[in-house]
Records
---
Amino acid sequence: MGHKATIRPSTAFLTVDPGKAGRQVGFLMIPHSPHDDAWGVTRVPVAVIANGTGPTVILEGGNHGDEYEGPIAIGELIRELDPAEVQGRLILMPANNVHAVIAGTRTSPVDGLNFNRTFPGDPRGTITQQITAYISDHLYPMADAFLDLHSGGSSLDILPSAIIEPTEDAGLRRRNIAAVQAFDAPMTVVISNLGESRTATAAACQAGLVTVGTEMGGGGTVSLDALDVCRRGVRNVLVHLGVLDEKHKGPKRGDGKILELPGSKAYVFATMDGIFEPFHGNGAAVSEGQPAGRIHCTWDATREPETVHYQTDGILYGRRQPGRVRPGNCCLVIAREYEGPIA
Ligand code: CA
């Protein structure tokens, strides 16, 4: 268990009792008072499935509202798991950034915020900040482990992978790596988000939770392969944590190799306004200095395309989905062999 966060006063409340055994399906209610609803609430779906003794695991989907495999897999668990199959407690949250999930957008249409840049939230802040504050203050302290199921979203197509959130705590790092490898995705990747501390997974590590992330496909669609990887991976991790019985475990398929995004060199950013033409597909082996693609200004034929280059050796891990780019857009992401500490 992590250290208890200071409990800040909040008006949010749950319609389920996390202390009760069995299956309950309800909501985290955030009082929300816009023009057309003076005393209404924002309803964030939450289910609790608890039985016997064992760890408490939070499963998060819909952190970004345009990433679909995780929310589908969590919804299935809510409907299909028999509480008698569980040892411990699952807190299942398929659509945490609920207004973004309903809109099918990355960020919340209510306050414009990226949920995954708001931890530890603010119970007196905007709706997004209030949701993340409730998770930080009330749910993380109940939990032993956290699964945050992302995909690439509308703008990125990413190779299906399980993600390790880096931590300075060697014991937690060891447990995180073991849990992420138990997910058994085709790839395992360490992603630091350049040291970003306001993400759900960084905050979960800060709270001492065993933390597992994913990047399941993307491009704003549902990938058949990634959905299969996600369904099996979630159950594999729950078996690893002792919440589900071995019979839920899928056949081994990952090679156990760990990759990482090597800091800022991982990214190829657009250098001009235009249309990005990639030179390689996801999974291609690439090298530092090699031309990665070029940007065309199709509305001005007098302008030469601008070529952009890879800044590191590695494999092409993700690629921008829309062709249209503006300066600073992330066009390509490279992963390479992980060289950091394992334990
Ligand atoms: Ca995401």
---
Amino acid sequence: MGTILVTGGCGYIGAHTIVDLLENGFEVVSADNLSRASEHSLSGIEKITGKKIKNYCVDLTDAKATENIFIENPSIIGIIHFAAYKAVGESVEKPLEYYENNIFSLVHLLKMAVKYNAKHFIFSSSCTVYGNPDAIPVTEQTELKPAASPYGATKQMGETIVRDTAFIQPLSTILLRYFNPVGAHPSTAIGELPIGRPQNLVPAITQTAIGKLDTMNVYGDDYDTRDGSCIRDYIHVCDIAHAHTLALQYSIKNNQVKSCEVFNLGTGNGITVLEAIKAFEKVAGVSLNYKIGPRRAGDIVAIYANNDFAVKKLSWEIKYSLEDMMRTAWAWEQSLVK
Ligand code: WQD
């Protein structure tokens, strides 16, 4: 089936996707400079699949080091590009680091994809590209509003760069817009490893529940929603991972060139922050110590996906419920203290 280069392969979604690719018969090499992840993920992948994955500890903003991966692996037929900085708040503080890292790495990889005929290119995008949508659920045709952060801007620019390249070069490209990936592999061998205090909701919940954090804030309960807290489309990381395998199989089967398709990867269900907390409390059998705090700058009120296109064209089925997301996230957090 050929080899797939997974950049950011030691990261949260990258590691889960490598497991799914291996379970579906693909060979995989990883490229991850470990700036935001640890090789701990590779041992987790081996524990689940029995396979050792080679990771190139390479900075993809270094064109020569990036090319060397392709020279050493002539069997690469496709790339899944996860490697990017992704903290919304940090991107406001360090915009040039975000533009340099996220854009330069993408340009180098696209050049290598063309030069070495790695024609199947899957780009890790995000619902952030929609900004604050006028209407929800959003479809892939929903107008993109101005990005709310430099991080979101790098995802919007990234989509444009991929689309423009695929317009002229013989690549088959797919843009996958993730909503809110949460949870962990049922084996608890891999999961999310936030660096420092978690910015995202579910790791903040599990770290508060296990006592790593004394308490956590709900950032506002005065929004115009059913319970006043923000609405998001939480989706299990394993459902996201399998969608990448399906997208690759779709690209290989269709054998297109000069193509660029977009898919929303969300469940289609909007859940409020308070509903997510209640679901966790029910599954974990604990009462979470949280406070209602002020709104967080940059938060949008509500967004969730219309995922019909991905379900129909990729034959994608959502397998994990909100309770499964919370159960696996909690099991993973508990495994970290053992
Ligand atoms: C979700 C909701 C918070 C923490 C971002 C990126 C997105 C993707 C996922 C990269 C919001 C509330 C959170 C807390 C809270 N990143 N919250 N207390 O901001 O929707 O999406 O992360 O791929 O691209 O934009 O996710 O989990 O940070 O927040 O109340 O301690 O939970 O206000 O309403 P977000 P999040």
